[in-house]
């Protein structure tokens, strides 16, 4: 039976999904969750051990820390440490929202759209 439980943890059915709102509720020093690359981590027990200090983690508590985590350029060791605190994935609805928001906020997307129109107008008006 123990073996069964082990394999269960590795299958999709065992994965827990959290919304951004649920993660947001865990924003205290005695109850701290973080989102990094769409995965949710309970880092409560790690706060005092963090080589970069407790303060920076508290600033990100309950929020998406992907950018700040990457900005620091954390080592492979640091990335592997993350696994210990993994508790689940970001809920699909929260994922879709960010994907759509970032597409429309994406400068390249609008620029591509603009250039396409410009080249069409140029062709129609015989301008070079
Ligand atoms: C659970 C998530 C995190 C883990 C497991 C983690 C782990 C570590 C580790 C092991 C180091 C030592 C250097 C290295 O190995 O790269 C470190 C350094 C550092 N971390 Fe994190 N970290 C996490 C999240 C964050 C976040 C979200 C921030 C920023 C808001 C941050 C800021 C820093 C800074 C500034 C240092 C540099 C300390 C120094 O060089 O003196 N960390 N972290």
UniProtKB/TrEMBL annotation:
Q: Which GO terms describe its cellular component?
A: membrane
* Keyword set, alphabetical order: Electron transport, Heme, Iron, Membrane, Metal-binding, Transmembrane, Transport
What's this protein's family per the entry?
Belongs to the cytochrome b5 family.
**Cross-referenced Gene3D superfamilies:** Cytochrome b5-like heme/steroid binding domain (3.10.120.10)
Work out whether the entry's keyword set contains S-adenosyl-L-methionine.
Answer: no
The Cytochrome b5 heme-binding domain is annotated at 15-91
Please identify the protein, giving its name as recorded: Cytochrome b5 heme-binding domain-containing protein
Give this protein's Gene Ontology molecular function annotations. heme binding; metal ion binding
Task: Tell me the Pfam families matching this sequence.
Answer: Cyt-b5
InterPro entries recorded: Cyt_B5-like_heme/steroid-bd, Cyt_B5-like_heme/steroid_sf, Cyt_B5_heme-BS, Cytochrome_b5
Instruction: Name where it's found.
Output: Membrane
């Amino acid at each position: 039976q123990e073996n069964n439980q082990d394999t269960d943890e590795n299958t999709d059915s065992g994965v827990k999904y959290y919304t951004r709102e649920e993660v947001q509720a865990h924003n205290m020093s005695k109850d701290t969750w973080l989102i990094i690359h769409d995965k949710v981590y309970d880092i409560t027990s790690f706060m005092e051990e963090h080589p970069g200090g407790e303060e920076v983690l508290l600033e990100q508590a309950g929020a998406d820390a992907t950018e700040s985590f990457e900005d620091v350029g954390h080592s492979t060791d640091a990335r592997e440490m993350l696994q210990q605190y993994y508790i689940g994935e970001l809920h699909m609805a929260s994922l879709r929202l960010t994907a759509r928001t970032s597409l429309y906020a994406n400068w390249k997307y609008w620029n591509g759209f603009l250039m396409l129109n410009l080249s069409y107008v140029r062709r129609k008006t015989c301008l070079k």
